[in-house]
């Protein structure tokens, strides 16, 4: 599924005394990008909540690499890192749209709960929703066993091979 990245025009009020974006805003942008992503895949939070499904944040982390400033436009790229029907982990990259440089990397982890706070499996209880998440995951790259064996063999030229034999 091809999704468009979320873009955020940096506002003056998001900056601090050093005239750079305050670190707390990046976590907010993760949430903005995540809600936009959910809308794009056809699962707006409003729909989930009407069905009694909650998706709380369990953890949030960010690694700040460079500073963004007022007037910059941030593009937030999002990928599903892990999903099993109950737990969802999303990775984010905040990129300066003009320079295409990564300014922040982060992650949030979530679970799915009923309104009573009990874990719920989308795979089991809402397979249509489950498939929407699965369709957004990038396929894992797997190599054929023959290729793995070939790649693992050391490449020794004849000169090195003779030297090894002498030292044995």
Structural account:
By secondary structure, the protein is α+β, with helices and mostly antiparallel strands. It has one domain (6-167): Thiol Ester Dehydrase, Chain A (Roll), CATH 3.10.129.10. Helix content is 32%, strand content 28%. The protein is built from six helices and seven strands; from the N terminus they run βααββββββαααα. The chain has helices at residues 24-40, 45-50, 122-125, 127-134, 145-152, 158-167, and strands at residues 6-9, 53-54, 57-64, 73-83, 87-96, 102-111, 113-114. The strands form two sheets. The chain has a five-stranded antiparallel beta sheet, covered by helices on one side. A hairpin with a 3-residue loop joins β4 (73-83) and β5. The termini are far apart. Residues 141-168 have low confidence and may be disordered.
């Amino acid at each position: 599924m091809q999704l468009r990245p979320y873009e955020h025009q940096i506002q003056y009020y998001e900056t601090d005394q050093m005239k750079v974006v305050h670190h707390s805003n990046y976590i907010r942008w993760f949430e903005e990008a995540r809600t936009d992503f959910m809308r794009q895949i056809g699962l707006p939070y409003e729909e989930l909540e009407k069905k009694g499904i909650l998706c709380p944040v369990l953890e949030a982390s960010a690694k700040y690499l460079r500073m963004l400033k007022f007037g910059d436009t941030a593009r937030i790229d999002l990928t599903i890192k892990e999903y099993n029907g109950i737990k969802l982990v999303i990775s984010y990259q905040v990129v300066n749209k003009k320079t295409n440089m990564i300014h922040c990397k982060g992650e949030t982890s979530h679970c799915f709960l009923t309104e009573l706070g009990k874990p719920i499996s989308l795979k089991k209880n809402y397979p249509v929703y489950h498939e929407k998440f699965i369709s957004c995951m990038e396929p894992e790259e797997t190599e054929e066993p023959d290729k793995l064996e070939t790649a693992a063999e050391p490449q020794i030229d004849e000169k090195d091979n003779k030297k090894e034999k002498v030292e044995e």
